Amino acid sequence: MTANPKIIVLDDDPTGSQTVHSCLLLMRWDVDTLRIGLCDESPILFVLTNTRSLTPEDAASVTREVCHNLKIALDTLPSQEGEKEEGFLIVSRSDSTLRGHYPIETDVIAAELGPFDAHFLVPAFFEGGRITRDSIHYLIIDGVPTPVHETEFARDSVFAYHHSYLPKYVEEKTKGQISEDSVERFLLSDIRTTSLERLMNLHNNQCVVVDGENQADLNKFAQDILFAASQGKRFLFRSAASLLTALANLPPQPIGAQDMAQYVRSGKPGAVIVGSHVKKTTQQLAKLLQTEGTVGIEVDVARLVNDALGTETTALLSDTLQKISAVHNEGKTPVVFTSRQELTFPDARTRLDFGFKVSNLLMDIVRGLPEDIGFLISKGGITSNDVLSKGLALRSARLLGQILAGCSMVITNSEHPRFPNLPVVLFPGNVGDESALATVYQRLT
How far apart (Å, rounded) are the C-alpha atoms in residues 273 and 387? Predict the structure, then answer.
């Protein structure tokens, strides 16, 4: 294995790159596109699978397809560029509040790209106030560490869970196939001294949960991981973004967050698309709409619930685009947001199907935005993925860095048929304080 292996991240929404910069995000995973990413000079590469928006069956299918094509791409790289997949670290990046298709995705990756000596759960994400101590995962709320099973995220309509103690979470999610007692625990005291001997003794895809209270913890752990990997150990990771910071070990981003307005096209007003429904997003939206230069445009998605013929969808799209055009012509930034009331559905499948319907409408809105907007802010992980892959129809995008802790900015290529060189902010639903969305907008204007 090379001293600096390529880190290949299968990201279940496009926000896992929120702590790194200057790398490629791939919205497609055909062999040729993967080859472009593998040959890129950055030490890290993201494949945006968007599986968190899919059913378990579809998530498994997409992950299997990526792994299959990845094996072909690795095998057909020029000899001076690449190695077999053993020369790479594979990360299944997911949500720092424990929502996502675990263990489905790691099971598929292990079957396709294994065998692995261990798979690690490392959900700490320090920029978002997520820490793990004594194997209990916390979300810091108003300065108070709160076990994540006590937060709204644990009551997610698709990915609900009941435990913040990670070995118990693993047992719950694997339906007892991995028992709580069989999970290896790497505590703060372990990773702050040395984990190397224990790492070298792992085998047979052992499940491991890892503590972390600050970036230095994971930086130290990553050093031991990379050394063990250089000695032939094969590891798989299910992590949030902070582990990626440690593994990639990048220098500071070329242009700082405070200066990213220089990417805005011709100093023009932009557009904001808000799809996320978590409480934090709603609070941030309210603050943004109090900011000078913004005009809110609500999309009443309840009208789509029984819209079998698509007439409501068509009417909503036409009405919204007319409002956007009027706001833009006034030199202001339209903030398009889905209605905030919580809708209920009989089952998860119906909920996901409705989500697709809403997303398709939002992407039609993105495609109809004025061509001369200066920037685009996308709020919500799944929404951001759809903006890149469907609304803007990108094959790949270059990550510029973070405009705010946890919020990435990418740029479209100069050949884009409608929005060339457009800076796009990928803003996760559950990141930042109440003023964060307004802060990003102000930094761009």
Answer: 9
Contact status, residue 445 vs residue 261, Cβ threshold 8 Å:
yes
Task: Confirm if 195 and 224 have CB atoms less than 8 A apart.
Answer: yes
| Residue 422 near residue 375, CB atoms below 8 Å | yes
Average pLDDT over residues 248-258: 93
Q: What would the DSSP string read from start to end of 174-193?
A: TTTSS-GGG-EEE-HHHHTT
> Which span out of 51-55, 78-82, 133-137 was modeled with the highest average pLDDT?
133-137
pLDDT for the residue numbered 3:
56
Average pLDDT, integer, range 118-143: 96
Alpha carbons 428 and 261: distance in angstroms, whole number = 20
Tokens of 433: 């304080």
Please give the distance of CA 323 from its chain centroid, rounded to a whole number.
30
CA 367 from centre of chain? 22
**Rounded mean pLDDT of 81-87?**
51
Residue 418: closest CA among 357, 360, 376, 378: 376
- List C-alpha distances in Å: 272 to 24, 53, 295, 366, 400: 23, 21, 10, 10, 19
Sole residue written with tokens 């409501």: 312
Task: Determine the average pLDDT of the residues in 212-237.
Answer: 96
For the stretch 340-343, contacts whose Cβ atoms lie closer than 8 Å and that sit 24 or more positions apart, written own/partner, are 340/277, 340/282, 341/302, 342/277, 343/301, 343/302, 343/305
Convert 384-403 to b/e letters by CB count within 10 Å (16 or more is b).
bbbbbbbbbbbebbebbbbb
DSSP single-letter state for residue 125:
B
Predicted confidence (pLDDT) per residue in 19-60, tens digit: 899 999 999 999 999 999 999 999 999 999 989 989 999 999
What does the alpha-carbon distance between residue 98 and residue 8 come to, in Å, rounded to a whole number? Answer: 21
Q: Express as a percent the part of the chain with pLDDT over 90.
A: 79
- Rounded distance between C-alpha atoms, residue 409 and residue 402, angstroms: 6
Counting Cα atoms < 13 Å in the Cβ hemisphere of 122 gives: 35
